[in-house]
Fold FIST C-domain domain-containing protein.
Amino acid sequence: MMLYCIVMKGVTMSIDIKYYKTLDTFVRDCKGDNNRYLLFIAQECKFYISLLKNSKIEAYGAIFPEIILDTISYKEGLIAYKLNKNEKVFLQQDINNLTLKEDDFENINSVITFVDGLSLNINSYLDSLYELLAPETQVIGGGAGKIPFEQKENIFSNEGIYKEAALIICLENKIKVGFEHGWSLMQEQAIATLSKENTLFQIDYINAYEFYKSMIEKDLNKTILDEELETYLKTYPLGLVKFDNEILVKEIIKINKDKSLVLGSSIPQNSIINFLKGEKDVVIEASKKAALKAVENCNNKQKAVFLFECVSRRLFLDENHKNEIEIIKENINEKLLIGLLTLGEIVNNNDMNINFYNKTCIVGALC
């Protein structure tokens, strides 16, 4: 077991975290110990909610494409984090109807939240959560789910597993964040002239597929066959331009038969968009900047570090992803790194709301 003991304000606080290859092993190891656990499940882990329910272990968690502990990325197994007594956890089975109130978040400095990453209601959930929190509360997290992208139950407790759900973990400790995406602007802005929820039909009154394809062909200076276009999706995302000119990266996860583009999160009609392009060394450098920013904001006194990174960055970086994780680890002074590959990333940054990103790297330093 990886047991990290750290000192805060004269009090020894332990971070008790362990990787298990199977859910069976976790249950055998922890059954009857009267502790609460936060579980991060890799999608290839054989996960049976009945086993967890029958174990009587109080546990909460979510399923992700991959999980990371220090510099090792796992596609199977799980990470078990033993919750401290002062860490409150709320599972919301329906993100459209939160059962919480402001009093539930008293004396809270930071919140980690996981949400069904393929829900069409993420932004409204984050708006509702924002209304319950004190303005100075730091929020980070990500979207749960599996690849290929298909909405299924992925948020759970030992009582059941749900979709259209969210998990909220409340911390008294402060978390300082850094986040970057590293995708470069390709050309002038355009308008999403026809969209609904997370589907984009037209850009500047032209079929979205044809417009998008023409932008890639122009950049590559070659003609692309229709059957080839999907191979470029991980390299050429879209960017939603906010009122302050910040870019929210939007991943294209699917091309429909009608040649509309399905995005990883909602795209408001008539919003301003940019076309973005990825280069591996620039994307890795952005992750390094996020790590450095987080530890700098923590005055380099981090006790442990959380990483929430879009799974599509992993797919884009391919064999270079291991190098990226090692660089992040090096730049957090070799502190404990707990990472998840997510279907969208969640963070607020002295903002008026909580944002949901795609293809972004978020680093949170536990101070």
The mean pLDDT is 92.
